[in-house]
Design brief:
By secondary structure, the protein is mainly β. The protein has 3 helices and 8 strands, in the order αβββββααβββ. 45% of the residues are buried. The structure holds a DNA duplex (13 and 13 nucleotides).
Length: 201
DNA sequence: CGGCTGATGATCT
DNA sequence: GATCATCAGCCGG
């Protein structure tokens, strides 16, 4: 099920603006190359973190931790939080602009059996719903921070394998600043989207 | 389903 | 010392 038609997204086709990129990435493919094989998933939920947005990690300027957010759009920004989870983001904006898109949920496409072994849970459907679970299954860690997701490598963005459904929009999940902004995007009705039921319709 | 809580460690004040 | 873009487990309805 890894069709030849799966191609890397070219940087020139990625929207530069953060919210536009967050919306654009819904339905696209996330590809993880591992020694054990390839895992692919369909991106079904994202959140935008804009310049001037108090919830964005770049809000207070460049630091060692958030420097990848300032890379040209299409690079990975990975960080560690709550003592146990890695979060995977796609940088947005031109080089020097601190903004990005958090990948919150992916619908499993290929490599599902291997993914399940990675997680010692009895729950089957929610394998990659939620940013922490997503990173755990795809073995995303700080080693991937700063990676070019438009280039051949261990993690990259690919074209959609099937048409995207209706896209919903809501407030972002789990933040404490700038909470009212409608910067979360998701494919409506997709069972792999995280959050409460009301946040999936 | 929805709501709550403790775990856990890097980062910044 | 506080904060934090979360999660699993547990509880009540």
């Amino acid at each position: 099920m890894s069709p030849r038609s799966l191609k890397r997204l070219h940087r020139t086709e990625l929207p530069v603006a953060t919210a536009a990129l967050a919306r654009y990435l819904i339905g696209k493919t996330l590809v993880r190359e591992l020694p054990q094989g390839r895992i692919t998933g369909r991106i079904v939920e994202t959140e935008a973190y804009l310049p001037g947005d108090a919830a964005c990690h770049a809000f207070r300027g460049l630091t060692k931790r958030n420097r990848s957010l300032f890379l040209e759009h299409g690079h990975a920004y990975v960080y560690f939080i709550y003592g146990s989870h890695f979060m995977l983001n796609v940088s947005s904006g031109k080089e020097g602009v601190g903004a990005g898109v958090l990948l919150r949920a992916v619908e499993p496409l290929d490599g599902i059996e291997w993914m399940r072994k990675r997680r010692s849970t009895t729950r089957v459907p929610g394998t990659m719903c939620g940013p922490g679970r997503l990173a755990a299954v795809l073995r995303v860690s700080m080693k991937l921070d700063g990676l070019d997701l438009c280039a051949k490598g261990p993690l990259w963005l690919g074209t959609a394998v099937r048409p995207v459904g209706r896209i919903g929009r809501s407030i972002r999940i789990g933040i404490t600043k700038d909470t009212h902004r409608l910067l979360r995007f998701y494919e409506r009705g997709n069972p792999f989207v995280s959050g409460a039921k009301s946040m999936r319709d």
